[in-house]
Predict the 3D structure of the following.
Amino acid sequence: MGKTISFKIKNVEGKADTCIIEFNGEIDAGNSNVIIDEIFPLIEKGKLHLIGDLSNLEYINSSGIYNLLRCYTKVKEKGGYFKIVDGKQPLQEILEALGVTRLMPFCETVDEALQE
Amino acid sequence: MKELKLSIPADFKFVPGVRTCISRISSSFGFDDRETYQIELVVDEICNNAIEHGSKNPSDVVEASCTFDRGYMKLRVKDAGGEAFNVEEILSRNIEQASKTDLLHSLDQRGRGLIIVRKLVDRLHIKVGEDGTIVEIEKSKRDPEQNG
């Protein structure tokens, strides 16, 4: 893998079923399964309102995007949501070009994601 | 015209270095930040495909060559020949599924990275042969008057 990927999981006060997942680093074919390893257990533990903050993510490829979508599908099947906070350009442009922003709910900031 | 040639062992660990290398060289030839990011992604997806689907043994090698000229870059990636599936047919199917907003299903298929490649390059050519698959792309700078 290139740079590693790391996650910061933050709980939200007053919302036991909500958490914010900060993505840092790069996601590629070598490490994209870490997304599943980190997020699926959260869903299994009842965290059904997820906010994925991509604002510090430097790179993501198709395998990473696919695993984000898998998480979205899994939490949606359980009645929850997986909102995404916009990534930096030009990463965000790729997500838009692929149609990911039409499929998953995107917000400009974490605060916006928490308010809706 | 300047050419870079790389012999990449069929191991995913080499891909980040390759994509970063070619992306940085693209910047030196005047591609802007947006374009170099796209080039990095294109290199990543094509090389990953070559290793995952085009290599049978760890000792296999993926041959990549990259040329830079005034206003454009070309990338050619040849694998050693792995799974015998029709890349062009799969690419067409994946693009069709993605266009129908069945994005998750299309990204769950082989060659999903080629959906991204197709969107980001000006020309994509795939040739499947008995001794391997060759993927060629061409990408132009938005402003060919920049240094190159």
Summary: The radius of gyration of chain B is 15 Å. The longest strand of chain B covers residues 61-69. Strands of chain B lie at 2-9, 61-69, 72-78, 123-129, 132-140. The mean pLDDT of chain B is 84.
